[in-house]
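Preliminary data (for renewal application), tryptophan complex.
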Amino acid sequence: MKQIVVSGIRSTGHLHLGNYYGALRNFIQMQNDFECYFFIADYHSLTTHPDPKDLHPNVRSILAEYLASGLDPEKSSIYIQSDVPEVCEIFTLLNMHAYIGELERTASFKDKIRKQPENVNAGLLTYPVLMAADILQHKANLVPVGKDQLQHLEMTRKYARRFNTIYGAELFPEPDAYKFHGEPIKIPGLDGSGKMGKSEGNCIYLNDEDKVLTKKVMRAVTDQGPTEMNQQKPEVIENLFTLMKVVSTPDTVEHFNDLYNKCEIRYGDMKKQLAEDILKVTAPIRERYKEIVNDDEYLRRVAAIGAEKARESSAKTLREMREIMGFKKF
Ligand code: TRP
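Predicted structure:
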């Protein structure tokens, strides 16, 4: 039997190169080897109180970006979290065995308290339980997550174990973090800060207009240039090369590397090439995105098929949980 994979995608913000090379490209690969559920976590997005008029457009654009990038509704179940309300009941049941102390100790919760002290809602506190419900409803074996989500996954494992132990059942497998083959590609920021990220405010988005994207790349932080042959590159320059290795041909990288080593590099030329190559690899995604983002008929169909598959799996787990916990009909 195929292993089951679940991953949630936050429904805030657009996809940037870091998301694409760090995670999404692996999701696309996983679709061939596993039974995958990829969903847009719109319930989770409510913890920060988004404006209701933004909720649906955000879901739409994220869905369209993921489809445009290659998530395939024929291979995976792609759905919107709130289209599968069974997850809320599973969440309620799991909450009874989730202790306040352990939730309060979660790093992401402590972080949020610091960042939004005026809005410390219960949804933030129980965020890991809802995430556990997302995962356990499909009895996932594998969850592809970044470092920042490992603690949440550890809690999911704990809740699975706890449920099984308390009720003497073998309902939930303990899901493992899915490790990608080889070193994960970390996309650097071009502003001199370590990584590309939304909170760093330094993202190059897949959907940036050509001009905007080029401008961002041309503004990348550099230095005065090398002064000695073959000298070691400072971090900001290494960053440019790292990104170039991802999007450009090996010949191009070698060309600029040679120029650097000979102290003949002109960063402006390198950035121009880099911008061109980023545009080249992202252009097909942008084109596809434009085709589907307003195609309600298509998006509705994808979401409906995804939700149907997910609901079937979730409803089955919920029935089993209810039975194990003692719910009965007269
Ligand atoms: N918390 C995840 C994030 O912020 C999103 C998420 C919600 C998730 N539910 C999930 C990820 C279940 C994996 C599995 O990125």
